[in-house]
Design goal:
This protein has one helix at residues 2-17; strands spanning 33-37, 44-48, 53-57, 65-66, 75-80, 88-92, 96-100, 108-111, 122-124, 132-134. The protein is 11% helix and 29% strand. The protein is built from 1 helix and 10 strands. The model is unreliable at 1-9 (pLDDT under 50).
Length: 150
């Protein structure tokens, strides 16, 4: 009987001695979207869709910085590579987009002929982070696209 009681106390001891969690807050102008951590790191990124700003934290949300390479008003969404914890893609509103290979510390722009599709715009290659499929959408204004008319 005594051994069972001793085990229960020993099992609860780590939680009783644990330090209080640190809580910090950051007020964004608009509701951020796509909050995502890079696996096995303290680095996370989000996009503030209304302002088009991508934010990055190196300390699990303690401090946030706006990315410098992606101009304000440009970003729509961020997609993290599911197989490489250093790679992510930020889609722009039109045909300019950005890729990071160092968890958002730096971004390199690339251009496409069409703006991103609303459904599944990016598909990453499972073993090669330098390859992905981009699904663009032809802009036709109010009417749906039916091809070129001669």
């Amino acid at each position: 009987m005594r051994l069972r009681s001793l085990f229960t106390v020993a099992w609860l001891l780590p939680w009783a001695l644990a330090a209080e969690p640190k809580v910090s807050t950051k007020q964004f102008e608009h509701q951020p979207r796509n909050l995502m951590f890079f696996d096995d790191s303290e680095v996370a990124i989000i996009v503030e869709k209304e302002t088009g700003v991508v934010w990055r934290t190196k300390d699990a949300g303690g401090e946030w910085e706006a990315t410098k390479e992606i101009g304000e008003g440009q970003a729509v969404a961020v997609f993290k590579h599911p197989y490489d914890n250093k790679v992510a893609v930020t889609l722009g509103r039109r045909t300019e987009h950005w890729i990071t290979k160092d968890q958002g510390a730096t971004w390199k722009s690339f251009k496409t002929e069409e703006p991103p599709s609303g459904l599944y715009p990016i598909s990453f290659h499972a073993t090669d982070p330098d390859r992905m499929l981009y699904n663009g959408e032809e802009e036709c204004g109010f009417f749906s696209c039916i091809g070129k008319v001669s």
